[in-house]
Design brief:
By secondary structure, this protein is mainly alpha-helical. The protein has a single domain, classed as Rhopdopsin 7-helix transmembrane proteins, CATH 1.20.1070. The chain is 78% helix and 0% strand.
Length: 267
Amino acid sequence: MANYSAPVEGIAGGYTGDSLAIQAALAALLSCAIYGALELVVIIFFAFHVYRGLYFWSLLITASLGILPQAVGLLLKYFDVGPIWIPVTLSTFGWATMVTGQSVVLYSRLHLIVRNPSVLAFVLYMIIIDAFILQVPQIVFSYGAIYGGPHFSYIYNIWARVQLTGFFVQEIIISTIFIVQTFRLLCTYPQRSKRRTRIMEQLLLINTVIILMDISLLVLEYQDIFILQTSLKTFFYAVKLKLEFAVLSRLVSFVNYDHEQDSSVFS
């Protein structure tokens, strides 16, 4: 059975084992993430008629500047291609863009089912504050692990758990808001058309899947299964972004609802 927790040197080194199964799994997961991100970038430019707005830019940046460099960086790192600072730079800044960008994608469509300005402001401030509090130390510790020795590597491993837990809580909050508001819509207007009901059910399903993915990543992190956790994390974020794009883009149909009815539902 392949051991996905060793041998690997954490953030400061690549995979040093000789298991073909692990190498194949890493290559497959990260290649799928790269393909998914490239495919999504192409789809975005064909799907949008006007290239502006928070939804458009958050999708494009998350896919092109988040998932792609994160996946490429991990491939270079685990297969020991080039000096270590190159893959660490790609994966570190790619991860920061990927995880925060994915939350911004959800936020950019949250106003379609949430009419409470306080809730929207809370989510926005939470994303911004978490990005600074959780991402900046991670970047410092990543480079410290390369140039600062074992002490920084130890700190990095601890902070990686703190960071992943923090973003897990953030995504749980955002997904829970989507789920609760979706339930309220379905319960308040059960007579809606099958198409609209199907969209809401898909939104509910996707946010449930997001929570399950995040739970699995958290379990892998606390079990010190570093290789699988980092590779699967990149793959999961590529999948989540494509799922969100598929359903969130269709939520625009709800904008045409009578505003008075919407206010009675969401206030």
